[in-house]
Amino acid sequence: MKRTFVDLHLRPNLKDSAAIVRLIDKTAALDYRLVSVPTDPQASSGEIQKLRDICKNAGLDFVSRVDLRPRSQNELLTLLRKCRRRFEIICVLCENKEVARQAAKDRRVDLLNFPQTDYRNRFFDAAEAELASGGLAALEFDVKPLLLLEGPARVRLLSCLRREVQVARAFHVPIVVSSGVSEVVLLRKPREMAVLFSLVDLAGVYGLDAVSCAPLAIVKRNREKLCSKFVAPGIRVVKREMDCEES
Amino acid sequence: MKRVKRRYLALQIDSAYVPSQKEFLDCVWAAVTKLYGEFGASLTSLALIDYDAEGRQAVLRANLATVDQVRVAVASITSIAGREAAVHVLVASGTIKALNARLKELNSA
Known about the structure:
heterodimer, A: alpha/beta, seven-stranded parallel β-sheet, B: alpha+beta, two-stranded antiparallel ribbon, 6 strands
């Protein structure tokens, strides 16, 4: 069966409509079927609908996503309360340990993202992975720094990512590979993204799952939850009858 | 002696600039050497089989055992001769004949 490829982290300049169209058209040409562009937590439904329309014109399925950058645990909880019902994907950019730990154990968080080049603030260790495996959060890696960094900086990033992949796999935390790019020239085909992550021991089927099955599972799960017919996992309203209330 | 198995990769250069054959090959070698070092690069048996500057397509040959390393190196290219560029793998095959047939199929689709 043909895989459905997903890129959950396109980052065009949202003020430049032409750039958004260029990036999304290129993504469609590179064989992706489902994409996501992070917006502000305060983004209006009109802005999200505009992105959805651009994706529809390119033949892509759009997933609404918000990137939260809280400074404390309480701020994270407040933001989650406000955003969870509005967006299909919630990603938390973990800039300190307190936020990282809360995000990992909170079942409303879909993706954990860590600072790309600030290696001291990448808190994805065994404790974090254990919390994430109990919750629903997946670990997200962006391809962009792998492409742009050179020399010792890339060496350090590769060793850091390799360690995090080992920890994630040991605790069965799903890994999602996204592009994280804002320029067309940095976009890669899904299989190229997967093969780039073979550098950090995410080779073969694991790499392909990180650009297809893992992100797709998150989107499916959240769409089901946000559907008006959803009651609880595995339970959904099949039919509403007016006389049900009377009897 | 055991026969060396090879793979052929058809590549598409995605750039506004049209690189020369030498610029393209230098760039691929630089990417392989940067990621895997000179020893790693020597194991790939990399060779340029065909280069179509107008169509911005190239065909590379590599050892089967190291074809994934070549794919990684090619995917990591972000510029050719100082100009922004990306290189995408179109088709991979074990023989040039099959590669050309699949390329033809891809172009007609």
